Amino acid sequence: MRSRCAAKRAILAMTLGVACAAVPAVSRADGGSTPAVQPTAAISIVPGSEGIGVTVTRALVPGVLNLNLGYTAYTFNRTFSTSDVNYNGTFQLGGAPLTISWFPWKGGVNLQVGAFFNNNQLSAVANPTFQGTFTINGHTYTVQQAGTISGQTNFKTTATYLGIGIGNPVGNGRGHLLLNLGAVYQGSPNVTVVATGAAANPQLAADIQAEQANVNSKLNNLKWFPALSLGYAFPL
Description:
two-stranded antiparallel ribbon; 50% strand; eight-stranded antiparallel β-barrel; alpha+beta; 13 strands; 3 helices
C-alpha cells in the first residue's frame, strides 16, 4: 500500500511538471491581448468514469498529433453479493493515462491509443446474516468460527487504452468542451479472499477457496473498464 501511495505521488508530480513545461513562451505582436501564435499546449479538467482528473496536452504536430498525460482519482462504496455472501466493497478508481491523439479528419474528431497506469483497486468485507452466520459454499459458519472474511484485488498495473475523442484540447485558443469515449483493458481481476478462522478449520479453508472463485467470476466483467469523460480544455 505504501509503494502504491508513493507511485501516486510520483505520477501526480510528473503531471504537474509536464503542465509547467507545457506552458509556451507566447510573444505578442502588438503588446495587446491577441496571441501572435496559436497555442501548442492545454490543460483540461476531466471528470469521468475514472474519477475527477486533469490532463496536460502538448501538440506534437499541430492539428494532427497530440500527446496527453493525465491523472484521475475517485473512491466510492458499493455492496455486492455472490450466491451466498453479501459484501461491503470499496472501489478505488484512477490512474495516469498516457495517450496519443490522432486527428485523421478536419475538425476535432480524433482516435486515441496509449497506456493507462492503473490504480484501480477493490477491497471488500463480508457481512454476516442477522443470525450472525455466513453461508459459504453451502456450509454455515458462525462469526466466531469464520472470523472476518475479506477480499482484495489489484488489476494490471499497466493497462491498454483505446478511445475516440471529440474536440482538440489545444484548439483555437479559447476554452471549450471535450468528449472522450474509450475503454481500458485491465485484464481479469484476481481477487484474494481470506477468513481469519480458516487456519484452524480445513473445511472453512476449502470453502473460502470456492468463494474466491465465485467473487472472481462475479467481477470478470470488469476486464474492460469504460473510460468516459466530459471535460473542459484551457489552451495555453
